[in-house]
Design a protein that fits this description.
The chain has 394 residues and is an alpha/beta fold. It is built from 13 helices and 15 strands. Strand 9, helix 6 and strand 10 form a beta-alpha-beta unit. The chain is globular, with a radius of gyration of 20 Å.
Length: 394
């Protein structure tokens, strides 16, 4: 089969690789019909190379048709249309039973000190072959796959794999008061979807911060107030002016380590990416120092007694934290990978009707054949041609 494989910094290729097969009785194999490039994939493309292996298959936002199931898989059958969550979880361990599927005790990557295994996401998360491919082996298929109707296009459902539950969790963790205000830092796919979900759930004021013109216009078209970083130097002052001088009730950091933080830390990460993995991997685990521009902005922007929800990915030990300010402002801080299956029952009813309240049908900016994946990564990384969400079709 054809698959998108990693070969180094800014180097992905579509190559022929062995077809996946059933390896465990709890496996399934799906024929991928749609798969996406995620902003998290760009971390692997750019900065987290020390944790990747030559030829690793990328991707963690796939959906498709079940082709084969293992003997212990009874919840899906051949021919079912399914979306595959980005994390791999068993559904029955202590963590899964409490809705913490990203901490699944069966698939935790303990040798790396990390949570549940993820599709297509480096040695840190189990180095499991990803979904930017023609076919995908799905471990823990007795629980993971989300069965969806055959009505509607793939665009209606594919974002259940990551974007929708991740944005949904970010809004839930933000704990926006009824008719309250929320500021979303970053208008990538997760940030923009978080603004739509906050609006849908009744937030009184939704503010977003970004600097990419196309992203700003998309948000404004949906009624979001935008702070344009091209014209605003003091984000905190701008948002306080918009919120009666207090700051936002809640802030969602949808940026993470891609923020324009310390040039020293960025340099460390880039240099580490050129070193042998045995040397570079330990450096990268602590190279998050001072790359906290977005988080520091969130702390400044949120009102006293407010909540910060961190959904953007941070890739190292980010220290020092401004603990005095966090404590003095009585800020609540919540974060973590999205627990996909926990949120699906709330989201799926919004996708199965004739209406499209979250605008998923038109959410993608680019649709490319799998064979053009390298081009998709390039324009997404460089923010060229208005690329914000790239959908691939095998």
């Amino acid at each position: 089969m054809k698959a998108v494989t990693w070969h180094g910094k800014n180097d992905v290729r579509v190559q022929s690789v062995p077809d996946p097969r059933i390896q465990e009785p709890t496996d399934a194999v799906i024929r991928v019909t749609t798969t996406n490039i995620c902003g998290s994939d760009l971390h692997l493309y750019e900065t987290l190379g020390p944790f990747m292996g030559q030829g690793d298959i990328l991707g963690h936002e796939p959906m498709g048709i079940v082709e084969e199931v293992g003997s212990e898989v009874t919840n899906v059958k051949v021919g079912d249309r399914v979306v595959i969550p980005f994390q791999i979880a068993c559904g029955t361990c202590w963590m899964c039973e409490r809705g913490l599927q990203t901490q699944c005790e069966v698939t935790q990557v303990r040798d790396q000190g990390m949570g549940a295994a993820l599709f297509g996401f480096s040695k840190l998360y189990g180095e499991v072959a990803g979904g930017q491919a023609e076919y995908l082996r799905v471990p823990q298929a007795q629980y993971g796959p989300i069965v969806v109707p055959h009505e509607h296009s793939d665009d209606r459902f594919v974002y259940l794999s990551d974007v929708l539950p991740t944005a949904w969790q970010s809004v839930a963790y933000a704990d926006i008061p009824k008719d309250g205000s929320v500021a979303v830092l970053g208008l990538g796919p997760i940030g923009e979807m978080a603004t739509r979900i906050a609006q849908h759930q009744g937030a009184g004021q939704v503010i977003a911060v970004d600097l990419v013109p196309e992203r700003i216009e998309r948000a404004r078209a949906h009624g979001v107030q935008v702070v344009d970083l091209n014209h605003t130097k003091d984000i905190g002052a701008a948002i306080r002016d918009m919120t009666d001088g207090r700051g936002a009730d809640a802030v969602i950091d949808a940026v993470g380590m891609e923020a324009h933080g310390s040039p020293v830390a960025r340099g460390i990460q880039q240099v580490a990416g050129m070193l042998p993995q045995a040397v570079s991997a330990p450096i990268m685990k602590t190279a998050g120092v001072d790359r906290l521009a977005a988080l520091n902005s969130a702390i400044d922007v949120v009102r006293r007694g407010g909540t910060i929800s961190v959904i953007g990915v941070y890739g190292g030990v980010a220290d020092p934290m401004p603990m005095l300010t966090l404590f003095d402002k009585q800020i609540q801080l919540r974060m973590g990978q999205a627990n996909v299956k926990h949120w699906v029952p709330e989201i799926l009813p919004l996708l199965t009707g004739a209406d499209d309240p979250l605008g998923v049908d038109t959410f993608a900016t680019h649709r490319l054949p799998l064979s053009e994946a390298a081009h998709g990564y390039d324009i997404f990384q460089k923010k060229q041609d208005g690329a914000m969400k790239v959908v691939l079709t095998p």
